[in-house]
Amino acid sequence: xxxxxxxxxxxxxxxxxxxxxxxxxxxxxxxxxxxxxxxxxxxxxxxxxxxxxxxxxxxxxxxxxxxxxxxxxxxxxxxxxxxxxxxxxxxxxxxxxxxxxxxxxxxxxxxxxxxxxxxxxxxxxxxxxxxxxxxxxxxxxxxxxxxxxxxxxxxxxxxxxxxxxxxxxxxxxxxxxxxxxxxxxxxxxxxxxxxxxxxxxxxxxxxxxxxxxxxxxxxxxxxxxxxxxxxxxxxxxxxxxxxxxxxxxxxxxxxxxxxxxxxxxxxxxxxxxxxxxxxxxxxxxxxxxxxxxxxxxxxxxxxxxxxxxxxxxxxxxxxxxxxxxxxxxxxxxxxxxxxxxxxxxxxxxxxxxxxxxxxxxxxxxxxxxxxxxxxxxxxxx
Length: 381
Description:
This protein is an alpha/beta fold. The chain starts with a helix and ends in a 30-residue tail after the last helix. The model has no long low-confidence stretch (mean pLDDT 88).
């Protein structure tokens, strides 16, 4: 059975709710549709903000052949299948390839896609919840406009929920709007599930409906942050079993592997630090491997890194020291740097005492006079 969110999906811009900065009169997407301008673009915005819907409306308005791929599951062969062959009748019709979660494509996959976009064989529309500046390769990004979408406002959510034609009391609707945090798809799915399971909509039946795994692991929601927090704390405590368990939960829920790997790179310096400096090398290698390979094989790289970091000795002195130093920078401003450690590139500066008295292995503090007794990096315990 087709999901309700799909059944009530708007077919035209006039039916679409929200994103007025893109779809309103005189705004870029509306103008492009009205003038039938064909170009590649990336839709960057939170879950349930209308990225897929806008892509379909655009393709339909331009009478284009529309292909939709999920970067989580698609590979090079899936891309190759939608490329029209030159000289055929299909080649004369615009072909739009919509890649959902394009940030999940690794560099090799994006490189493979690039020449087809460059030649105009396909028009690319990417959808992402992550900053495309970090997740999309520069050559591909330079050939596409980026449109930023916002989460739906409560008023917009109210309009969207009315399209479902499912009746509910005001308190249930208000609770659902607040819970969904602007994610229209999540709200509609919860509403549909509650009606199917319980036959009526109340705050209680909505809460029960939201027990499904997909809704509990909303990437903007509490469970997302709880799980990554438990993962980090497990590695910090030297508990590899717990770290692997929470890693498995994130992988199973479809968490972006690069998000997990980035947290591990930070952890390597923040928590392992000076106790095992090579931890940063390993964590960076995990990130590079994940970026090149992607799921499902990247799970093995993440597990390798998580177990390694959990078993490492920990030393947070560098992390704690630099933030204490930052506090002093904010507190005291730019204190005068001692003359003997100042740069002296000119004769005048040397005459003024710059660099005078400098010794390569000086034991006297190089800190400004006001902080000479300060110790940011504590002695090893």
